[in-house]
Automatic annotation (TrEMBL):
Keywords: Membrane, Transmembrane, Transmembrane helix
Sequence intervals crossing the membrane: 56-78, 83-102, 138-155, 175-200, 212-233
Keyword Nucleotide-binding: no
Superkingdom per UniProt: Bacteria
InterPro entries: Put_HupE_UreJ
Name by which UniProt lists this protein: HupE/UreJ protein
Source species taxonomy: Bacteria, Pseudomonadati, Pseudomonadota, Gammaproteobacteria, Alteromonadales
Species this chain originates from: Shewanella woodyi (strain ATCC 51908 / MS32)
């Protein structure tokens, strides 16, 4: 194994472990919403397009749970059009429920929705390991599953933004700007991940480490489910 490949593998595994590790601390810190952002969301009145784009992008960049799910989704997608299709289905799903949830003031228990989002990571890791065929003897429709879990991820985003009771004045353009920011953040992070994965895929070790990588994904998802359910039953 070349030194370059070894360093790349260390970097990728380190990145995944760092994301998993951050999930522990972020879970305990209101999903990465810092104090300055909280104050802005609470005090803001009227239309604020650029700040909401920034907040949406930042929320997605620090949204470890959404990113872990997407890493699982694209892990075995080798053609650009397939990546575009699946990411578009996820984007469509979470955009629908983000806008629908906020604009119609539909509140979902944040612990339960985040537990479902954690479960989506478990699902994708299990799917990538061929678990459905081995254990249950069938393969769920992966496109439909990504779309459905995208809907749940959108409700998770809606739940976070609803915690701040945004005023009706300027709500629609502000939420549209937030959603645009989410897409920008998703595009930036996913682009970086795809570049790293594209380099790793040139080597056989990509498949040799696929079991370990997807087992890590499942472990991270189970950890998130456990944290959220613990919060639900103790709150």
């Amino acid at each position: 194994m070349s030194q370059i490949l070894a360093n790349t593998l260390k970097m990728l595994m380190g990145l995944l472990l760092a994301i998993l590790g951050l999930s522990v601390s972020f879970t305990l810190s209101a999903h990465g919403v810092d104090e300055a952002t909280k104050q802005f969301l609470i005090l803001n009145e009227g239309i604020s397009i650029l700040p909401f784009i920034y907040i949406g992008a930042k929320h997605m960049v620090t949204g470890y749970d959404h990113l872990l799910f997407l890493v699982g989704v694209i892990f075995f997608l080798f053609r650009g059009k397939d990546v575009l299709l699946y990411v578009s289905l996820f984007t469509l799903g979470h955009s629908i429920t983000l806008l629908f949830g906020v604009l119609n003031d539909i509140e979902v228990n944040p612990y339960l929705i985040d537990a479902i989002i954690g479960f989506s990571i478990v699902y994708k890791g299990f799917d990538n390991l061929g678990g459905f065929k081995r254990v249950f003897g069938f393969q769920p429709n992966t496109k439909v599953a990504v779309m459905i879990f995208g809907l749940f991820h959108g409700f998770g985003l809606a739940t976070k933004i609803q915690e701040f009771k945004l005023p009706q004045d300027g709500l629609v353009p502000n939420i549209l700007a937030f959603n645009l920011g989410v897409e920008i953040g998703q595009f930036l992070v996913l682009g970086a991940v795809l570049i790293l994965m594209s380099f790793w895929r040139r080597h056989r070790s990509y498949f040799q480490f696929s079991t370990a990588t997807n087992t890590l994904l499942m472990s991270g998802g189970l950890m998130l489910v456990g944290f959220q359910l613990t919060g639900y039953f103790t709150s």
